[in-house]
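User: Show me an example of a complex going from sequences to structure tokens.

Assistant: Sure. Here are the input components:
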Amino acid sequence: MFHIVVCGGIVPDPLQTLEPVKGPAGWGLKNELMLPSVLDPWASHALYEAAHLAKTVAGSKVWLVSLGPKAKLQQLMMTVAQKAPFELVVADGPASGFTDSFEVAEALHAVIAGIAGLDASKLLVFGGWQSASRGSGSTLQILGEKLGIADHFQGVDKLTVGADGSLEIMERVEGGAYQISTCSGAPAVLGWATGELPEPPNNPQVGMANMRLVMPALQKAKPAAVKADAIDYQSVTLPAQKRETRVVKDTPVDVIAQEIVDWLKN
Amino acid sequence: MDERQVMETDIVCVGFGPAMGGFLTTLARGIVNEDGSPVMESDLMPGMPPQVICYERADDIGVGVSGVVSKARAIRETLPDLDPACLPMCAPITEEKVVYLLDPHGASRRPLPMKAADAAFKLLGGRFPGCTYKDFSWELPYIPPFLNKHGGLTFSIGQFNQWVGNNVMATGAAQIWPSSPGAAPIIEHRKVVGVRLADQGVDKAGKPDAAYMPGMDVRAKLTVVGDGPVGPVGRAIDDARGLPIGHHQRDYAVGMKVVVDLPGHCPLRPGTVIHTIGYPEPEIFGFLYVLPDRKASLGIFVPSWFDNPVRTAYRYLQHWMQHPYLWKYLKGGTLTSFGAKTLQECGQNGEPYLVGDGYARIGEGSGTTNVLTGSGVDEAWASGVMLGEAVVQLLEQGLPFTNENLEKTYVARRRASWLEAEAKQARRSREAFASGFIPGVVGMAISGLTKGALCWPADSEPVHKRIPSIEEYYRGRVSCEEIARIRKDCTAKGLALHDALMDRVGWPAIEYDGKLLISHQDALLIGGKVQAAPGYADHVTFEDHDTCRACREKTCIEACSGQAITTNPDDGVPLFDREKCLHCGACLWNCSKPSKTDPERTNVRFAAGAGGLHSAEN
């Protein structure tokens, strides 16, 4: 059996238009609290994989540890809680994407250390290998170190559990190749890429079961000591997008296609 | 997974909009103390308050609605501490204008008296007493009292819904589950006993596919239906019960709007409200609400009595934005959001049975929209509050949710309310639009100024009976032969007809600027962010395919707010792409062909579906 802790932050719905702005507390997103949120897409793959593993290995349990503003988490849980059975653990703090990974790992460590009944010998820490808002890829590694876990795997797409509890892990490596590793078992840290599972359907009964613990978890949430000024950004910009609209009439499709090909080549 | 799950709860609700916000806010105060302890106990879960669950179709509880202007009387009564400054995109109204727009292009289809009036305005310019004539527009010297929203608020329903929903859930009195379309009511022995959610893991046709999960049955002692004007649960109840004698649901409009970052030179202050009439076509009304932070919510209403079969809201919206009166404010702005929704414009004429054994209706689907004052959000909220009070009363008394008990409590409250009094005044105010734009405006003025005592009577007809053929609409402007050629060309290319026909009758081409004037598809990508989760059936289908094949208007294609319904080059049955659907429901009532099973309905079927818009600003 495993005790699986999934670390999943929240990010603005990727369909929204984001604009970085510098406020008195440092960098943030314009109208951040207005934007609908989603569970970080990388972390959501980790959650689905965790739920699948818990279902296949008897006695296993899943906790979702999330650092984010309480009000946004409450709203988000109404969607996420329908996807998979888990117990929510909340750290009430910023999720702007401008926090320092060391600070975030410290906050997550404090929360995980406080989970009652968590058995460190059965612990698998899951999370996103990357993040839709914080792409440093270092938060899970720092957290793993703080938890004293030596076996770390990043860019994971597949986990196979042996009959003896050993883990076979398929990781993405450079050049589009995979690396297969094995370790004797928990504890381990797995930073997931996309995994292999589709997004589960919304199951209202799973949602209702999770909800019994979601609201108390939100009420019990302690403020996370994440320093806003722990990192200084020289500049912040969105990835450049070039948009040119040109209206053409009576242009054959192969001419249009050729123009796109020429543009790509240049 | 193949077995249908069943869950019991005390109260199940469908649709989270302003009406449900009012209902749940009021209910929460009656069933849960401020410290979260129950005022009364659930029958199902002793020790807990009554279990209340609300299912919302959209992907979040505030991602697919609209900017509004509202007197906010009921909202403020429920939320006396509401501070506009604490709500994103909310401003107290500072200035209101009603503006008559003339046609700068000569392409608009104006009746003769309007043409004469336009000529007089141009000739006399600003010499009309108390009037300003410039930029092809005429600001009305006064706003009739029934239209003004003085003292009210303009705000984003999306932001308001998010805020209200969060507050409700924080009380612990109710759960609001998004991404959960309610497919149909569960009716047993003429009693509504709950709601069936939409099947998941199915293909386009609704047949089981990978990860098939039949929609759960949520059974409850009370089902609260607030799923709006095109909601499948409310419409299924209407199908089962019919409408009260003398009532009809034949008047609709599609509201299409954008949210714009106003350019730096725009002088309009937050809280400015502009209503327009007369352009791009006489029947199309427009609105512009200025919000804080240089944002504005603006758009048009294309009503069911606009007798044009090629009624594309999107292109008309672009012409409206470019009217000289508005363009001077908007030029250089950037579109940040886009959306559309159906408005049920029958008001009290379309009121369904408000209650029955085991259910109650609130909000727009229950006929709360006031077509005289042009308001609906506050009215919807008020209906929810009244049901909330009634339900608390019945729970306190331990009485069941029967038709009789709901009549004595909820319906009695509604009948004694300002909502009812104003609905009565408005009841016949829009009738005359069935006879044309000028009778309609005159009829509205008569009704409004006499508080509903007088009206300009006219008979209503189902929308599909009103829509003329394309040849008829363009008679004298485009020949039948030319229409046949345009139809043939467009069908071969898989295009709608509206652009070719509008170009032909003199509407200027839209010069895209990539910021505010963008293609319809760009509006979906940039401003609409339309998305559809996989594993759901197509929610728009066509009842009788031969009817579609014989149809010459295909108004469903022309009127589609998201270009989700498109011309099928290989067959007469239109194609539907769920990935582009805004869920506005315009296809449902814009179809020009009657259903073979119900002459009041059309050949389009509009079922429960997930997805649609993702916008924080609507």
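The lines above are the inputs; the final block is the predicted structure for all two components together. Chain B has 19 helices and 25 strands.
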